[in-house]
Amino acid sequence: xxxxxxxxxxxxxxxxxxxxxxxxxxxxxxxxxxxxxxxxxxxxxxxxxxxxxxxxxxxxxxxxxxxxxxxxxxxxxxxxxxxxxxxxxxxxxxxxxxxxxxx
Length: 103
Known about the structure:
By secondary structure, the chain is mainly alpha-helical.
C-alpha cells in the first residue's frame, strides 16, 4: 500500500510473531504480553541500530510487565521468560528477514 519499508517490515514482523505466539499458547500458556513487549524493544533496537535512548528506556517496562504477569498469577516465571525469549529472538530475526525482503 505504498507504506515506507520499515513500516511494512514492522507489520510483517508483529503479525508473524503474534501468529507464532498464539499457536504456542494453544499448547503451553506463553505470555503474549511479554512476547509483544520484548518484540517492541527488539524492533526499536534493530530499527535504530541499538543507538539512542529508546531501547534502554523501554527495557524496564518489559521487566514491569513480566513481574505483573507473575504477580497476578496469570503466568509462571517460565512462561514469562519463554515469552520474552520468543519476542526478542523472533522479532530480531523477523525484522531482518522482512527488511531484506522489503529492500
